[in-house]
Design a protein that fits this description.
mainly alpha; 3 helices; 40% helix
């Protein structure tokens, strides 16, 4: 790595000198005496808000279509009854 030392006018140009490595010891993180490491606590409210953010978006069109089928009496079909019965039997 090179280093430019000082700002001088055009008549005082000097060659660029390589930077000298520092002889100081590397810095080590210091901890106050008698103190434990930092910790983070998440409140119940923050935890609930995180779960709410993960809830999928409501699809209003699908809800409206299902409501219309229920009102028309066409939502419950023999295929849906069979699927529901199979799922219930698997759960038992």
């Amino acid at each position: 790595m090179s280093q430019i030392n000082g700002i001088q006018g055009p008549g005082n140009l000097r060659p660029i000198q390589p930077a000298q490595p520092s002889k100081a010891a590397p810095l080590q993180p210091q901890q106050a005496p008698g103190r434990a490491n930092d910790t983070v606590e998440i409140s119940q409210v923050a935890s609930l808000l995180s779960k709410v953010a993960d809830i999928p978006e409501v699809r209003a069109e699908k809800i409206a279509a299902v409501r219309a089928q229920i009102e028309a009496g066409t939502y419950i079909t023999p295929e849906k009854i069979d699927i529901t019965a199979e799922r219930l039997l698997r759960e038992l």
